Amino acid sequence: MSLPDPALVVLVGASGSGKSTWAAAHYRAEEVASSDTLRGIVGSGPHDLDASTDAFALLESIVTARLGRRLTTVVDTLGFDPARRLGWLALARAAGLPGVVVVLETPDAECRRRNASRDRPVPASVLAGQLRRSREVAGELDGEGWDVVLRVAAEGAPPVPAVETARAAEHRTASTGVEVLLHVSRFPWGEEPMTWLRDIALAADEAGFAGLSLMDHLIQIPQVGRVWDPIPEPWVALGAIAAQGTSLRLGTLCTPVTFRPPGITAKAAATLSALTGGRAFLGIGAGWWEREHAAFGLPFPSAPERLDELEYSIRAMRALWAPGTKAYASDGVFLPETTCYPRPSAPVQVLVGGGGELRTLRIAAELGDACNLTTSDPAVLRHKVEVLRRHCADVGRDPSEVAVTVLDLPVVGRDRDDVWRRVEALRGRTAAATFAARTHAGTVAEHRDRHARLAALGVSQVFLSTPDLAGPEDVLALAGLTT
Ligand code: UTP
Ligand code: MG
């Protein structure tokens, strides 16, 4: 770098852009007139804003005295005030010295990062204002008559690559008319849980699934596996999946209201939403398996009480996700404030799990974005959808606002031989024909036809869970169902 010397050197840049560091690297301490240093001399420290007036008065004296002697003077302030800049330039001109402006063009994110790691960070809102202002100032300088405008790019830490977590949710409806999400309920991850989860998520994204849901149980349920099989805490596992850079929507299916107080579930879902740029959903249900509650010391109230809790929880969570922090008192929910940050980046889709016709479907109609049914039997499904629609009419809800989603547990094979090999491996003591009928055992093409029939019944999302899902290749084999 060769700048004129002697000269007036005026620094411009937001807090943390590296002005003082740059000055110290190129000039003697005595040559630098820094407003922060002077605050420390006439005030309690470099950040004593009460001492600003005195510090700036001193700074003006120093700049005037030094330039009058034709001594190089570096002015280390934010440099945002045009009147001050022009005043210093006039002093330089009067002394016959050239005027130099040095603009620290450090990326905003790097300024924020450096600021955050300081002992006394500038408040984020103040820094945001400075970053805005520094862009304006960059445009003002050219017309001011400086001899040299030097733009210094950031030095130091290389930019941290952004994790691709904020991709928008894409709509990935298959031509069958339903969106297919992968539901993961078994975790045969061997010695490498993180590798397995990552590979499953990446395969689901590659195969075109619209999302991925995790089962929420404390002990592996008998319908899926053995009690000693691993079953992860889903919000922790979803956080890990969120870091893998997919476009998948992520959530639980279904979180029992009995596991966590509603505020804690609301916090988990809001955090997942923030981490994924708004791709979080929440399946929630009344819970059903007494054993896991007893094992973990959780109360397991009666079914009517759990349904009351379900209703209460959805209301409380929606209050916590809503804008503002005011108290909430409505429909039996009393919260003295609703301060819950981060807020979800987009509305969290609430799927009410279960097909109970008297209350569960009514709760879905009143408070849900979807009802998640655990049947894909057409006759049963048609009936449940009718009941849901009646509840919607009763509570005055537009039925198009309550999606019908289905947990689909099919056996899927490559061809007829593969289908029947799987049926034989999975059926246990159940008769093969019964098991095959119950699991709609068939090829991808046959399941596509079935999904199209589900769409015709009003189903918009299918959570697909195959009973023998072992690894990413099994996920990729399902790709034909998502297009
Ligand atoms: P400075 O203290 O130099 O920033 O650097 P500044 O522009 O003068 O900020 P204000 O206006 O006085 O608040 C801020 C932090 O960034 C580091 C420095 O060590 C300091 O902790 N830094 C600076 C780097 O890590 N790399 C650099 O290239 C420059
Ligand atoms: Mg400084």
Descriptive account of the structure:
With 483 residues, the chain is of the alpha/beta class. It has two domains: 8-153, 3-Layer(aba) Sandwich (Rossmann fold), CATH 3.40.50.300; 163-481, Luciferase-like domain (TIM Barrel, Alpha-Beta Barrel), CATH 3.20.20.30. It is 41% helix and 17% strand. It contains 17 helices and 17 strands. The protein has helices spanning 19-26, 35-42, 52-68, 82-95, 108-116, 124-140, 193-206, 234-242, 262-275, 290-295, 303-321, 360-367, 378-395, 416-426, 432-438, 444-456, 472-476, and strands at residues 8-12, 32-34, 73-76, 99-105, 148-153, 179-184, 211-214, 249-256, 280-285, 328-330, 333-335, 349-353, 370-373, 403-408, 412-413, 442-443, 459-464. An eight-stranded parallel β-barrel has the order 6-7-8-9-12-13-14-17, surrounded by seven helices. β10 and β11 form a beta hairpin. The radius of gyration is 31 Å and the shape is elongated. The protein binds uridine 5'-triphosphate and magnesium ion. Magnesium ion (MG) binds next to α1.
Task: Describe the structure concisely for a colleague.
The chain is of the alpha/beta class.
Task: Furnish the topology, listing elements before pairings.
Blueprint: E1 8-12, H1 19-26, E2 32-34, H2 35-42, H3 52-68, E3 73-76, H4 82-95, E4 99-105, H5 108-116, H6 124-140, E5 148-153, E6 179-184, H7 193-206, E7 211-214, H8 234-242, E8 249-256, H9 262-275, E9 280-285, H10 290-295, H11 303-321, E10 328-330, E11 333-335, E12 349-353, H12 360-367, E13 370-373, H13 378-395, E14 403-408, E15 412-413, H14 416-426, H15 432-438, E16 442-443, H16 444-456, E17 459-464, H17 472-476
Parallel strand pairs: 1-3, 1-4, 2-3, 4-5, 6-7, 6-17, 7-8, 8-9, 9-12, 12-13, 13-14, 14-17, 15-16
Antiparallel strand pairs: 10-11
Helix pairs in contact: 2-3, 3-4, 8-9, 9-11, 12-13
Bound molecules: uridine 5'-triphosphate (UTP) and magnesium ion.
The site of magnesium ion has 4 residues, from helix 1.
